[in-house]
Amino acid sequence: MPIVKYPRATEPLWHEWDRKAQKCGLRHTVYAVNGDQYTGEWLDNLKHGKGTQVWKCTEAIYSGDWKFGKRDGYGSYSIPDPITKEYKKVYTGWWKNDQKCGYGTTFYPGGERYEGEWNGGLRSGWGRMYYRDGSIYEGQWLEDQPNGQGMLRLPNENRYEGGWKDGKKHGPGKFFYLDKGQLFEGIWAADIPKSGILIDFGRDEAPAPTQYPIPKV
């Protein structure tokens, strides 16, 4: 009985090429069509694991964790100084779904700095903000604004402790006028004191106390 030999089925060559093209594991620098470049780990053709991305348009650099093509985990984002061209950090901390989320520190132009919690790329939760004029706010935030309970300390050491809403003093609060040796305690609305009492507080240590003490009621 004659033996019939059938030709062995061969896999199309493009299948092999496609397998080689799929990025998985650690890879050298991969360049995108727009000039962006990424060096690091991949999974199923997506950035996943540790890696560094450089954007050609802004020359910004992100170095840290990735998850399925998005910044997710711990990492730092830096941009070049327009004059010196040296890289300076803009944000260092936690990310989720390509946005700041969790605890992190952001460095703003002019020396301002925020250290605290983020959610969806906005300051939300507890945090401390160092302003350009020397003021410091420490307390609760919501959607990038002081909201809840917090303390604002001014450059002259005067301070406000109390409620905040939409970035303004709101609700019960205390304002310590340490330069004059007085304390105002009352209710605030949209940064304006509506009612309360003013008493002497630390008058003997104040650098510029009022001429006459406030009489007791």
Give the topology string: H per helix, E per strand: HEEEEEEEEEEEEEEE
Radius of gyration: 29 Å
Please list the strands of the largest sheet in the order they lie side by side: 1-2-3-4-5-6-7-8-9-10-11-12-13-14-15
Give the amount of beta strand, in percent: over 45%
Low-confidence stretches: none
Q: Could you tell me how far the N terminus lies from the C terminus, measured between alpha carbons in angstroms?
A: 123 Å
Short summary:
The chain is mainly β.
What does this structure look like?
By secondary structure, the protein is mainly β. 4% of the residues lie in helices and 58% in strands. It is built from one helix and 15 strands. The chain has one helix at residues 13-21, and strands spanning 25-31, 37-43, 46-54, 61-67, 70-80, 87-96, 99-107, 113-119, 122-130, 136-142, 145-153, 159-165, 168-177, 182-189, 192-200. A 15-stranded antiparallel β-sheet has the order 1-2-3-4-5-6-7-8-9-10-11-12-13-14-15, with no helix packed on it. A hairpin with a 5-residue loop joins strand 11 and strand 12. The longest helix has 9 residues, at 13-21. It is elongated, with a radius of gyration of 29 Å. It starts with 12 loop residues before the first helix and ends in a 17-residue tail after the last strand. The mean pLDDT is 89. InterPro entries: MORN, MORN3. One of its GO terms (cellular component) is acrosomal vesicle. Its main location: cytoplasm.
